Amino acid sequence: MRAAKVGLATAVVILLYAVLHTHGLGALASDGGAGSYTFLQTQVGSSPDPVTYSSCRSIPVEFNLHGVDDPDTTRQVLLEAMGAASAASHLNLVYARDTARRPRPNWGTLEGYPVLIAFADASEIPAMDGVAGRAGSSWTAINGRDTYVSGQVVLERRYWNGELHAWHGHELTRAIVMHELGHVLGLGHVHDSGELMSADNHGKTTWGPGDRKGLAILGKGPCT
What's the predicted TM-score (pTM) here? Predict the structure, then answer.
């Protein structure tokens, strides 16, 4: 199966300078070779506690299918990936609506907006050059805790259109969306080919053991 290069997610808020100097990648976690995971962001200070979405609120998701050659199959793939992310994390990702909203080139999203899944190329989003997808979430302080409030997934439209109906294309494109939704929920990349959150996917189409552990932790954040 063709390897799919996936991009490092970036999470940004308005106070970018302060955020980048008080947050960092979570430490690599492993369990005797039974899987590995990282968190994109942890709480302020040295706490290993990750930034999460509220565990008691649904996460609405909008689709912008502009540029997609087969919207019906694409919609099915996106919904399947959302279902897989929901099942692993126990966070409720729900389709909200189709939208004309376009992704933000600086990757920042605003509180109150649904997560956006859209398709673009480097002419619109320069960071899409050479990758199949990029994703991340923005956070804000709620009740004294940094909490994700919205996010976006951007999928490279030419790559998507070329792979969707290729051999095993349905499984491959679903895996790409699962990977990017992993970033939205808070997982980072790992150097472990047994995990879907590896930066370079050489054929894996399901969550690995570390992916599942990390997503389960991200789903147990407080209700905010």
Answer: 0.88
